[in-house]
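For the sake of transparency, this paper describes our internal protein records without simplification. Such a record has a labelled line for the sequence and another for the backbone structure tokens. Nothing more is needed to write down the fold, since each code stands for a local backbone conformation. For reference, a complete record is included directly beneath this paragraph.
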Amino acid sequence: SDVCSSDLRMNVGRSFRAPALLERYASIRFAGFTVGRNPLLRPEIGWSAELGADWSTTLGAVPILIEGAVFHNELRDLIEPQFVVDAIRSEIQFVNITKARIQGFEGGIKMKVLPWLGFESAMTALAPQNLTTGKDLLFRHNIMLVQRALATWGDLQVNVDYRYLARQREVDERLGNLGLVV
């Protein structure tokens, strides 16, 4: 007979992330970019909530796992790299964004069609918003998709992956104007 099980999970939490030493004090030049210091960088503070579920079953001899979750993150002083241009410098600095919100959905399915062959498919959909500007956060992909086939022979495992990232809705136009990013 087919076996089914399911789980429901919920998580609510607060977060605090102090800036890394490199984010505050790095001063390097690499591949045509200069990363400058920002000793005034403040810690990120936020809260998050997630509601998720998974369901597993066996259809005939094929075990299947289906997972899904929705999440919501509110962030204050989010640390992001940004292009800083003024009369003195033109560099990338880690800076604080006043407020940001990242909401989304993750879902996936895994199945083992033969004892040595399995398939996985997963998708993440994001709504990454900079609440200060009203636009999407820079350089974020709103859709991410992964398709994978896995074959196992003894201790050897071979994976074949296909990954898709949707075009970013918001990029820093100054990088394009300088000819650094297309």
